[in-house]
Design brief:
Blueprint: H1 4-29, H2 38-73, H3 83-107, H4 109-131, H5 143-159, H6 165-169, H7 180-186, H8 190-243, H9 251-269, H10 271-292, H11 298-323
Length: 324
């Protein structure tokens, strides 16, 4: 016969082991997308899909314009038997480009992308505030009250973007507003929550923004060089066309269109602006990361979390305002 005290002790030991194992496993893997609320997963999926559609249409439009330039640059009077087919092809291409422009103006995938991303990042900010017991979710209230407030904030975030609520529903894959991982982290002690926040929020975002800043800087330089090469090529071929008396195809229009396409692509991607913006955030997050390591009270941790989330949110708010 097993003694009650022994059984009770074993159960407590098993519970502590399971809890410790869960926390350790979560710290090792970080906070994955599925560990965030359902609204984040929906808005994140919507943003990714809208971004892909937007840039796919931009690329397709650029390709059509380049083909138009190629067809228009050929001296079809020298091959009259192909003049009519070339005219038909040119007309089809121009109509297709107009259709793509109409789709972009009607669907506004760029707006959907920015608004969905704004919702996703806002939900992330609220989630971290909830887990770190910051602001309206501080330790002075019960966990049930904090969860009620959190659900209310999610509702407010969604109501600020009513135009895309229907779009978000298309990517709903089930889930819960408050995940077990979020509750688990919230119930940890100060030191554990501070360590988790530094590693999985501040450091994670600092590395992400640093990587993106370098990528955008390198892309800006690459496309800038390509644009200059195309401009110089257009000048060189223009001189060549003047020197030659007869030429079957005039490449000046093709190269000029290609140069304009490169500039349009750079404008759509905003390489320079993103590189500068992301670089600034990296510096701010680096300072906050060092400051967070010395936080020894709930008040100090709350201040760090608030400053960090404001820094990250400011970038998305400014970006959304500029693009919309």
């Amino acid at each position: 016969m097993i003694h009650f005290k022994t059984l009770f002790t074993r159960n407590i030991g098993i519970t502590i082991f399971i809890r410790t194992y869960s926390v350790t496993k979560l710290k090792a893997s970080g906070l994955e997308p599925q560990n965030y609320p359902k609204l984040f997963q929906e808005s994140d999926s919507s943003a990714i899909r809208a971004q892909r559609k937007y840039f796919w249409l931009v690329r397709l439009k650029i390709v059509l314009l380049l083909i138009t330039a190629v067809v228009a640059s050929v001296a079809w009077n020298q091959i009259p038997e192909f003049r009519t087919p070339a005219t038909v092809v040119l007309a089809i291409i121009l109509v297709s480009a107009m259709v793509i422009s109409a789709i972009m103006d009607t669907k506004k995938f760029d707006h959907l992308w920015f608004r969905s991303r704004a919702i996703a990042e806002s939900v992330k900010t609220e989630s971290w505030s909830f887990m770190m017991k910051v602001g309206p979710y501080d330790s002075s209230i019960t966990d049930s009250e904090a969860e009620i407030r959190f659900l209310g904030r999610l509702k407010e975030i969604l109501q600020r973007q009513p135009l895309i609520c229907g779009e978000l529903a298309l990517y709903s894959e089930g889930g819960v507003p408050i995940t077990p991982q979020m509750r688990l982290i919230r119930n940890e002690n100060l030191k554990s929550r501070r360590t988790f926040y530094i590693q999985n929020r501040i450091s994670d975002q600092r590395l992400w923004y640093g990587k993106k800043a370098k990528l955008n800087k390198s892309q800006e330089f690459k496309w800038f060089i390509i644009a200059w090469i195309l401009q110089l090529g257009a000048v060189a071929f223009a001189i060549l066309v003047i020197v030659l008396e007869e030429i079957f195809i005039n490449p000046v229009g093709i190269i000029t269109t290609a140069g304009a396409s490169v500039l349009s692509w750079m404008h759509a991607r905003n390489y320079q602006e993103l590189a500068q913006s992301y670089g600034l955030i990296v510096q701010e997050l680096s300072l906050l990361e060092e400051k967070a390591k010395t936080a020894s009270s709930e008040e100090e941790l709350s201040e760090i979390v608030e400053d960090t989330e404001k820094t990250i949110s400011r970038e998305h708010t400014i970006w959304l305002a500029r693009r919309l």
